[in-house]
Amino acid sequence: RHGDGAITISAGLWAADGRQLLRYDKVHLWGEQERATFSAADDPANIVDWHGWNVGLQICYDIEFAEPTRHLATRGANLVLVPTAIDGTAHYVPEILIPARAAENGVVVAYADYPASTREASGDDPVSYAGNSVVASWDGTVLGRVGVDAQLLIVELPTPESVPGQKSNYLRDRRGELYASWTESDRPRRTAP
What we know:
N-carbamoylputrescine amidase activity, hydrolase, Nitrilase, 5 helices, C-N_Hydrolase_sf, 21% helix, globular, Aliph_Amidase/BUP
């Protein structure tokens, strides 16, 4: 809960001594229940230096949009951590989107979901999640993946210096000034034939 009373879905990164290094509030709310319960954040994501990595956070549905990861990458992130609670029908996210987000931005993406069958603390009914947590390297290579059951995933990351981030071809060659005009309006534009 924020000072203004807004309730957000939040994630954080803490140091070994318990200090909070980074807080991120979810930008894209998924489904009617989230939209009815929580406020979407408007603040851009921050980045923190953590053990030589420039770390950014996203939450769940945020990674399914290209812009938040691009925002982090253009500001120097080279590692993006994404806790999620994605439902069991969305296997394409860990299988396709996560490696794509990593490659198109020259960053490492670590995406952690609940196991496929998880019981909510508030009841006995199981909830179906996708599972399939994955870590993808800056070139889209999958460094490690787990299945749908609860498992521990340990991967060897590339060195932070070897991750291109802002020096990747996609970031170097992008034309942000042009894209800004493309997103000025949600209204479709049509030209006469």
